[in-house]
Design a protein that fits this description.
alpha+beta, Glutaredoxin, 4-stranded mixed β-sheet, about 230 residues, 2 domains
């Protein structure tokens, strides 16, 4: 049995990645929502289910064949790439990465680059699924990050034929870059034709549409991310 702990859909890029991975796996999972902006979060994050990841979400718990969760015995996985790797293993190894070696190598590389980089884009264009800011002036450092994203998307689409970053199937690389597609949508960032077409496809993917619809129902707002 799997349990995935996430936070607000409107703002949490990492929760989105973890949730997309869980849905992509096809495995049933329990979804637990925690509010990291609540006054009681300092105490809540000391509980074992999120303390294990130093108070960060998402966290995936896997109790295996047991139906009752036990933090002392279950496997805990955090960090988007860690969650994807675990789910890839337990779901049969066919739903996240392509079989083609070159596509897989490129995908792993750009996934890790996403996990570790693009800090200016994160800082200056925080995710907000429910807002749209046409005419947003990109910070120069964020613009450099966008140019790199555009180049990676364009390369993947050209080399592996699309419509997704590593070829015919939506997978791990698309999951890692889904919040970037959301940010570029929110701030109406201009892209090359190929990257723009990919952004539109990513935002229209059924799992993204499901997440956006759920985000629209949330009522908790974080003023720091509302302009």
């Amino acid at each position: 049995m799997l349990k995935l702990i996430i936070t607000n859909r409107r703002y949490s890029s990492w929760s989105l990645r973890g949730w997309l991975a869980a849905r992509q796996s096809g495995l049933p999972f329990e979804e637990v929502m925690v509010d990291i902006y609540a006054l009681g979060w300092a105490e809540r994050k000391q509980q074992r289910d999120v303390a294990v990841s130093n108070g960060k979400v998402p966290v995936l718990w896997d109790s295996g064949p047991r139906t009752a969760f036990d933090p002392a015995a279950d496997a805990a996985i955090w960090n988007a790439i860690g969650i994807i790797d675990w789910l890839d293993r337990v779901s049969g190894g066919t739903k996240f990465w392509p079989m083609d070696g070159n596509a897989r190598a490129f995908g792993i590389s750009i996934a890790v680059e996403m996990q570790a980089g693009f800090m200016a884009l994160r800082q200056h264009c925080p995710m907000n699924m429910m807002r749209h800011y046409p005419g947003w002036a990109l910070h120069p450092d964020a613009a450099k990050d966008v140019a790199r994203v555009d180049a990676l998307w364009s390369e993947g689409l050209q080399r592996f034929g699309g419509p997704w970053l590593l070829g015919e199937c939506w997978g791990a690389a698309d999951i890692l870059y889904a919040p970037v597609a959301s940010r570029l949508t929110t701030y109406a960032v201009p892209l090359s034709p190929a990257a723009e077409a990919y952004r539109q496809r990513a935002m229209a993917h059924p799992l993204m549409a499901e997440w956006i619809a759920a985000a629209a129902q949330e009522t908790i707002l974080q003023p720091a991310y509302e302009y």
